[in-house]
Amino acid sequence: MAKKTYDLLFKLLLIGDSGVGKTCILFRFSDDAFTTTFISTIGIDFKIKTVELRGKKIKLQIWDTAGQERFHTITTSYYRGAMGIMLVYDITNEKSFENIVKWLRNIDEHANEDVEKMILGNKCDMSDKRTVSKERGETIAREHGIRFMETSAKANINIDKAFNDLAEAILDKTAGREPGDHVDRVLVDRKQQSNTSRSCCNN
Amino acid sequence: MAYRARLKEFDDVLDQEVIDLKKLKSLSFHGIPDDQGRRALCWRLLLNYLPTDKSQWPLFLQEKRQLYKQFIDEMVVMPGSQEGNGDVTEGDHPLSINPDSQWQTFFKDNEVLLQIDKDVRRLCPDISFFQQPTEFPCQEIVNSNDVKRLHTRVQRSVLKCANVERKGLGITKIALSIKKANEDYAPMTEGKEAHWEVVERILFLYAKLNPGQGYVQGMNEIIGPIYHAFACDPDITFREHAECDSFFCFTNLMSEIRDFFIKSLDETDHGINKMMSRMLVQLKNSDLDVWLKFQQLELKPQFYSFRWITLLLSQEFPLPDVLRIWDTLFSDESRFDFLIYVCCAMIVILRNKLLNGDFPSNLKLLQNFPPMDVQIILSKAVELSKQKN
Ligand SMILES: Nc1nc2c(ncn2[C@@H]2O[C@H](COP(=O)(O)OP(=O)(O)OP(=O)(O)O)[C@@H](O)[C@H]2O)c(=O)[nH]1
Ligand SMILES: [Mg+2]
């Protein structure tokens, strides 16, 4: 029997206006690098990274969505399965901050009720161009009872911490449940699991 | 030599007084030689821009180029200079509710521009072409002390209107993203203009002329290869007008694939959802095992083929391969049916890996298509298209 390489699987989603830096954040987290030359995301992208939390190996399946309005119908269809959602705005872009409310509404409409949320104010390395104060970010997060952090994909500020905190919050939730219960919720689905291990044996 | 023979075949078709489009398509389907601007010329024909009757070309091209110049004057140069003189506000207060208010237009334009600007700077990052200066900049614009450059217009207006806020009239506070975290795209000096600035202008004009559609992300990836092919034409009489000609070819191409870019048309016959489900049906016919595997993993076509189809595969392969694939796609007698076979071929070629992979590894594979000779994919696609189901 092939050994499973992780204990838990968490599905995360990144949303927010176009250009706020979602793809860069994810790239920083998964590949620990920054490049200014990303093409805009069309539809949806996907990355995987395994982290270790409290002695457990947790596989993070992270979906990176396109920000522009045109893609909303496709991207909202991914909300349902997500266990954690990161809402990203750009601290140098007022509009992207105002739209956080709109993104929160989207979550209410399309995501699971108990999804873990986190707001990220990205590009905090650009303090000279800042138009959204940290306090405003904190306030909106407090109003909605959501975690908040300022990040920079470029300067690598708080990126790992953001993902770890979010994963930890999900872990807290799942750990409180009955063991039999959380297997169902946490693993993608049984078919897929058994399938993976079977194909491993064949190799 | 086989290559010589191919060149000759093309020249035989292109040398006719009236070009036989059907013949041209059947030749181009197998790839257009890169030499001597044949690709650019063939695309102009395949995309129904140039008329097949060659005697009409001089007058036709002259008219188009005049028209395009007029577009630039009306939509880029004039607004730019008015704004430069500071008379956008003249007799027209920013809080005016007059729907024809110049401010209204100005705000709307800038929102579109902000998005285009972000995307053209991110165009084809793996090659340096788009950052290079063009030989044929638009003179009125590049010698205007930056006043008429579209991207400086975005930045300047953001600064100027920073405290203009108006809600409930369709205009919210204008986005304050002054920064353009793109150190790589150093601004060109007076008199010079980078290729990406040209592409920005093309997309802006397109958005202005097609207000129902505006600008949607991904359009940059459609104009990119066309403009590149035209701007690299060795024939200077054509290269000089790469901007104008690629604008019109892009417009023609968009008229055929427009529905992919419009959300409200997703479910219609030519919408993206319809295309994806056709692809899935074809996959079922071509390779039942893979189809079953995808069913079982709940690996939906939206996850990978949305981008494939919307962008005509332009983001999946390096530019030279995209050009080759587009030769074939543009030569399709019923555009863009063959694209569906190409998508299926891409999947079928990976079948062994896909049948053994789990959800994440399969999705990763499909979203980052492994480098390979595109000829293999195209031949497979032909094979699938000939199979009797
Ligand atoms: N200074 C700075 N620039 C950043 C940072 N993160 C992203 N950027 C820049 O912001 C631009 C957009 O970044 P992306 O990651 O492509 O934005 P996105 O949110 O994925 O945009 P869409 O895919 O269009 O929805 C890029 O040019 C990046 O270089 C950051 O932390 N600091
Ligand atoms: Mg992105």
Automatic annotation (TrEMBL), chain A:
Belongs to the small GTPase superfamily. Rab family. It is a lipid-anchor. Keywords: GTP-binding, Lipoprotein, Membrane, Nucleotide-binding, Prenylation. The keyword Ribosomal protein does not apply. It comes from the Eukaryota. This is Ras-related protein Rab-3-like Protein. GO terms for molecular function: GTP binding; GTPase activity; myosin V binding. One of its GO terms (cellular component) is recycling endosome. NCBIfam families: small_GTP (TIGR00231). Its main location: membrane. GO terms for biological process: exocytosis. It is found in: Endomembrane system.
TrEMBL record, chain B:
Residues 33-333 form the Rab-GAP TBC domain. Keywords: Cytoplasm, GTPase activation, Membrane. Its main location: cytoplasm. One of its GO terms (cellular component) is membrane. GO terms for molecular function: GTPase activator activity. InterPro entries: Rab-GAP-TBC_dom (IPR000195), Rab-GAP_TBC_sf (IPR035969). Signal peptide: none annotated. It is found in: Cytoplasm; Membrane. It holds the Pfam family RabGAP-TBC. One of its GO terms (biological process) is intracellular protein transport. SUPFAM superfamilies: Ypt/Rab-GAP domain of gyp1p (SSF47923). Interacts with RAB1A and RAB10; in a GTP-dependent manner. PANTHER family: TBC1 DOMAIN FAMILY MEMBER 13 (PTHR22957:SF27), TBC1 DOMAIN FAMILY MEMBER GTPASE-ACTIVATING PROTEIN (PTHR22957). Acts as a GTPase-activating protein for RAB35. Together with RAB35 may be involved in regulation of insulin-induced glucose transporter SLC2A4/GLUT4 translocation to the plasma membrane in adipocytes. This is TBC1 domain family member 13. It comes from Tribolium castaneum. The gene is AUGUSTUS-3.0.2_03977.
